[in-house]
Amino acid sequence: MAFQIRKGKKEDLPRVLELIKELALFERAPHEVTNTVEQMERDGFGPAPIYGFFVAENEQGIVGLSLYYWRYSTWKGKRLYLEDIIVTESQRGNGMGKQLFDRTMQCALDENCNGMIWQVLDWNTPAIEFYKKYGAAIDGSWMNCSLERVQLETLLQAKGLTSA
Fold this sequence. Notes:
The protein is α+β, with helices and mostly antiparallel strands. It has five helices and five strands. It has a single domain, classed as Aminopeptidase, CATH 3.40.630.
């Protein structure tokens, strides 16, 4: 089945969010997705877009996605952060993920990045093997840390540092 990779557009966002929810289900965390099409539209298509994406499309519509943004490393400089690469289950195994990844790598070079970085779940063996084929370094020594918005608000309010 033929497909094409193209830059994402605003009108793609409803399907993009569906793919994100499909990935969250696969990653055993469907309840974690709180994003909305409206928020994605503001964040990606407003006056200062903070992410970009490519879609894989065939006669069935959008069946794959690579979503990325830029980050800055004090050690390495500008880097492309690959947030998600998603290929709907029925379309896996036909080279779509590889082409999405290749297009994202090219974007990193086009945007003068000094490299790419991303995360992969330690139990997602197919993804780990996919990235190893590219020679990606899999670093198990760094741990992820996060604070959700409600935590930020609560912590800052307790310190008297916010008006919320």
